[in-house]
Amino acid sequence: MVTCTCINDKNKPRAIPKAKWLVKDQEYTVIFTTTVMPQKQLAVHLAEIELDETCFPYEYFLASRFAFTQENLLLLMELIKDCSDTSFSMDELLKQTQLEEI
User: Fold this and answer.
1) Domain ranges of the chain
2) H helices within the chain, ranges in order?
3) What pLDDT is stored for residue 90 in this prediction?
């Protein structure tokens, strides 16, 4: 599990209820990573928000909506490897995230 901070809560899809949407500057816990298609972007599943069938077709949040500390970015890299659902360059996927300075 990797802690991150929401940096972008804009453009909520209509299919996702407000109660299941992100709040800017709030901390969340990443428990799973995947690559979403057709965007080929890194996406995350959060411990705090369950995007269920009522949110279809949305199942994950794009990782670009979050910032990670340097330490947690390393943990994220390990989680990406553990989830092994990615078939794209690790460098390419990490470019989609931001480092948060504390």
Assistant:
1) 2-99
2) 70-83, 90-94
3) 61
